[in-house]
Amino acid sequence: MDHLLVMPIILPLFAGLAILWKRDASARFKRLVSLSAMVLLVAVSVALVTLASDDTIRYYALGDWQPPFGIVMVLDRLSALMVLLTSVLALFAGLYACAGQDEEGSNFYGLFQLQLMGINGAFMTGDLFNLFVFFEVLLIASYALLMHGGGKARTQSGLHYVALNLAGSSLFLIALGVLYGTLGTLNMADMAQKVATLDTSSAGLTMAAGLLLLTVFALKSAMLPLYFWLPRAYAAAPAAVAALFAIMTKVGIYAILRVFSLIFGNHAGALADMASPWIWWGGLATLALAAVGCLSARDMRTLVSYLVLVSVGTLLAAASLPGQQSLSALLYYMPQTTLVTGGLFLLADLIDDQRGKAGARIVKSRPLRQPALLGTLFFIGMAGIAGLPPFSGAIGKAMILQATPEGARVWLWSILLVAGLCAIVAASRAGSTFFWRSSEGEASGPLAGPARGIATAALIGAAPLLALLAGPITQFTDATAEQLDHPARYIDAILNPDPENQAMPMSNSEETP
Amino acid sequence: MEALYATVTGVLTACGIYLTLRGRTFPVVVGLTLLSYAVNLFLFSMGGLASKSTTIVDSSFPYADPLPQALVLTAIVIGFAMTAFVVILAMRTRGDLGSDSVDGQRTDEPREERK
After folding, report:
1. Across-strand partners of B24?
2. Is the distance from CB of A55 to CB of A475 less than 8 angstroms?
């Protein structure tokens, strides 16, 4: 059990290496290894969530170098939740790719696993420089995955994506350098402790570095001035990759939540909550522009990309609000929006397949082969994401609206509700064109098939399922929000550990990173 | 020494940003490379510049902060890999789109260097 905390990183690493090692093996072998690794990963993350639910914050010191000197992997409720979300999304995205998409280019599953390793690492790490390293791991895998299968649109959007992220990485390193210069440490818990006692002469410098970090995370999470890469990249990516990318913007949001609640949280003295106004206005502006983008989309993939941005805007605006209630609402809203947008990317690919030349463009075309199945999935997915009851999107949005303090309501309520309306208008236009306004002709596209059908239905099925499970999930997210709101617990758990909290006892040191 | 070091880092960053904002892939790649050089220099200086300290062998002598050195090594390796990748990607873009403009638009203007 002690080593369970590194499993979300080790497992995809070894699965990915095995697949890359045997790169000439049959597709069947790669699919088998990859899928079984992902099923195991889901099991591991369920175990981690159970482990984290007792409210102890555990850490795993790599190579047994104790914090603040060594790199630690930290398991608290938030990171457990994010790892579980990633592994569930990845399992179904990987299952979808089994139906043939993985063979369109080379090394699909190897890269897929390495990307998972990067994402899980980013969620688990307790060291800011290590966060940078895991960001790079997930990015370099995503560069290659984005261009899986090739084609003009992918190459072009890939170039933009790579150039932007390289510039972002440089900013990240500059921010890290300044923070190390002023605080003298890169362990997040230690940084949080040092920020509170920072002398005033270096407060300005630390603040600049903190806001630089916010810029980097805003690029990853696609906040307003930095989101223009997203619709093109996500619309061009292969369906299974686009579905996995639905978690990538959430990595940025997780980093914002972690850094600005732990290091620059309410205890940080002069720098407390310094980023909130930026996140608030950036989130609202993203939400407003993404709603306009939904209306302008001429292709279902672009539409879903803008729906991802709508959810990013909502999450960011909620993240900037004070108090535990909004945090809990945000954490309830995040899983369903991630899973359902992932499912919608898969559905767009199924619709594309059955409509011949028209593809996923919102134009009149020949009828679909399976209108009832795809139509139902489309309806549930879009209703879930736009926030119509009885699906979980409605519950999440209602919780966020309710948690908004009096003064902020006029902004968030109006923009969030109008954005929901725009999403409904755009979705109903797309849906009626796809399913009702078909021209004469024979329905002749390929059937969805079991793997692709199950994967899509399972992800979109999150909308009703998470609504049914709203009770236990909100209990978990309430406790998570409470934990996040008390950074002192995190700091204590890392820097003044009880021997019991430690995932790895001091004596046990045969493991090397 | 600090002034010289800061100037070099600053000039490298400025050149990097200028080139990154150009419209063709080659200057963009060179710009990103310069930017990563500047960042590496900057990281190296983050523990404070010390010209007369030794490496950390014996704590009775003043020693240089070893952490920035470790970090800058990591950053160099990552930056190198990323640069290699973006060079190949730029060549692929040239091949796929038939143009080295970052927007993928064919332009018949002479190359900027020849003006």
Report:
1. B101
2. no
Q: Which of A140, A156, A173 sits opposite B97 (nearest CB)?
A: A156
pLDDT at A67 over 90: no
Instruction: Supply the CATH number for residue B32's domain.
Output: 1.10.287.3510
Minimal Cβ distance to A177: which of B43, B86, B102: B43
CA distance B91 to B89: 5
pLDDT in tens, A315-366: 999 999 888 899 999 999 999 999 999 999 999 999 998 887 888 888 888 8
CB pairs under 8 A between A and B: 83
- Does some domain include residue B57? no
Q: Which domain holds residue B33?
A: 2-49+65-101
End-to-end CA distance of chain B: 39
Restricting to A residues 140-179, those with a Cβ less than 8 Å away from any Cβ of B are 140, 143, 150-152, 155-156, 158-160, 162-163, 166-167, 169-170, 173-174, 176-178
B55-112 pLDDT tens trace: 777 777 777 788 888 889 999 999 999 999 999 999 988 888 888 888 766 655 545 5
Indicate yes or no: CB of A152 within 8 angstroms of CB of B96: yes
**Contact assignment for B71 to A176 by CB distance below 8 Å:** yes
Nearest CA distance, B10 vs chain A (angstrom): 12
From the candidates A155, A170, A172, which should be mutated to test the interface with B, based on the most B CB atoms within 10 A? Answer: A170
Q: Is residue B54 part of a domain?
A: no
Q: Do you find a cis peptide bond into A371, omega within 30 degrees of 0?
A: no
Give pLDDT tens digits for A276-297.
899 999 999 999 999 999 999 9
Contact A30, A94 (CB under 8 A): no
Residues in chain A, how many? 513
In 3D, which of A304, A444, A440 has the Cα closest to residue A384?
A304
Residue A178 pLDDT greater than 60, yes or no: yes
Determine the pLDDT at residue A499. 59
How many angstroms separate the CA atoms of A251 and A8, rounded?
15
Contacts of A162 in chain B (CB under 8 A): 85-86, 89
Please report whether residue B94 resides in a domain. yes
Q: What is the ipTM of this complex?
A: 0.89
Question: For residues A311 and A287, what is the distance between their CA atoms, to the nearest angstrom?
Answer: 8
Helix ranges (H only) for chain B are: 2-20, 25-44, 66-97
Average confidence (pLDDT) over A182-187? 90
Is A229 within 8 Å of chain B by CB? no
Residue B68 with chain A: CB contacts under 8 Å: 177, 180
Shortest CB distance from A181 goes to which of B46, B85, B104? B46
Min distance A229 CA to chain B CA atoms (Å): 12
Contact A180 B67 (CB under 8 A): yes
Pair B100, A158: CB distance under 8 Å: no
Examine residue B97 and state whether it is found in any structural domain, yes or no.
yes
pLDDT band per the 50, 70, 90 thresholds, residue A512: very low
Cα Rg, chain A, nearest whole Å:
22
Shortest Cα–Cα distance, A334 to chain B (Å)? 31
Res. B115 pLDDT band, cuts 50 70 90: very low
Domain count along chain B: 1
Inter-chain touch B28–A163, beta carbons under 8 Å: yes
